[in-house]
Design brief:
The protein is α/β, with parallel strands linked by helices. It has helices at about 5-10, 35-40, 85-90, 105-115, 125-140, 160-165, 180-185, 190-210, 220-240, 255-260, 260-270, 275-285, 300-315, 315-335, and strands at about 15-20, 25-30, 55-60, 75-80, 95-100, 150, 170-175, 250, 290, 295-300.
């Protein structure tokens, strides 16, 4: 790396984002993005690649391994649709934090991890761990000395959370009780469509966690599939982000909305950020809590969120009760699930 100007630049320059991987050709797409792009983007996925964003494919092995010198990012994990983008925006306003929201490269690593013990895996287990550590180093770069990258992962990335955090990182895990989760998903047509589209993969993951799992996806009505999705992510987090570990802070987003200043203070302290009361109060009084975090041009608020949840509960009461009973029966069957937050 010392003799290669590009590798030296890549090692220190967060504007060279390893955006996505092509496993078939073993290449990485490098996108040229500014710090403002990072802060504005709700998702560092294909929506980032507008005409103004420069990009180039490069061989994976042409990119440096930053090694022990790499600064480890912090992480935000979540079940999906529980305010993770909002929390990322708030924490990015607290201290010297570079928000890295849902980088596509982590999705590829999670897909590889699902198959490393199977014949069709394109990487050996050793290569997976080597390249995962390499990618974490890339995502940990900042734009200024002292700036700490904070990766807000996609919900499905919780499956490899323990690999990502390592010994140096800290993580936040956001969830809501089951009933609130179902209501939230039912309140949005796009949320429901996305959750049902991801249900097969989550069902497969849940069945892998519990090998004698007694259900097939086709047996579950739509609202119960939503409950299954929540159960999958909660069970996954219990395994990869055990709440007893001090590196992991579990946060009920509904409780956070009820007491946002106290919650944001606790999260700041967890990540080693300055928990200054005036700064936190100013952030909470600003526009962030009144915007839809994934699309800030649209208004949204905790009160509107609750109104939509109440409406969904009224319209789907019987189906929600059936889904809750399904989860409660599984919690009784599998004691390792512990005390799940149902209501």
């Amino acid at each position: 790396m010392a003799d290669d100007p590009f590798q030296r630049r890549f090692a220190a320059d967060a504007s060279l984002l390893p955006h996505m991987a092509d496993l078939a050709t073993d290449r990485i797409l490098i996108a040229l993005v500014s710090e403002a792009d990072y802060r504005a983007a709700s998702f560092l996925d294909q929506r980032l690649l507008t005409d103004r964003i420069g990009r180039e494919w490069m061989a994976w092995d042409a990119l440096p391994n930053l090694g022990p010198a790499a600064r480890h990012p912090h992480f935000i994990f979540h079940t999906g649709h529980v305010g993770s983008t909002l929390v990322s925006r708030l924490l990015a306003g607290i201290g010297e934090v570079l928000p890295v929201r849902e980088p596509m490269l982590l999705r590829t690593l999670a897909q590889v991890a699902e198959r490393t013990d199977r014949p069709e895996s394109v990487w050996s287990p050793e290569l997976y761990h080597q390249r995962l550590a390499q990618a974490v180093g890339w995502l940990g770069r900042g734009f200024a000395p002292g700036q700490r990258a904070m990766v807000k992962a996609s919900s499905v990335i919780t499956a490899i959370a323990d690999d990502l955090i390592g010994t140096e990182g800290r993580a936040l895990f956001l969830y809501v009780p089951l009933v609130r989760y179902i209501e939230t998903i039912l309140a949005g047509e796009a949320s429901m469509a996305e959750t049902l589209a991801q249900a097969p993969a989550r069902m497969a993951r849940l069945a892998k966690l519990f090998p004698d799992f007694p259900f097939a996806l086709w047996q579950l009505p739509p609202v119960t599939r939503v409950a299954m999705s929540w159960l999958c992510e909660m069970a996954t987090a219990r395994r990869t982000l055990p709440p007893a570990d001090p590196r992991h802070l579990w946060v009920d987003f509904e409780a956070m909305l009820a007491s946002p200043a106290a919650a944001l203070t606790a999260q700041s302290l967890h990540f080693g950020l300055p928990a200054e009361t005036d700064r936190i109060e100013a952030l909470l009084a600003g526009p962030i809590l009144r915007q839809y975090s994934k699309a800030p041009e649209h208004g949204y608020s905790p009160d509107l969120r609750r109104q939509l949840q109440t409406q969904a509960a009224a319209e789907h009461g019987a189906a929600i009760a059936e889904a809750v009973a399904w989860v409660e029966a599984l919690a009784a069957r599998y004691k390792s699930l512990g005390d799940l937050p149902i209501r």
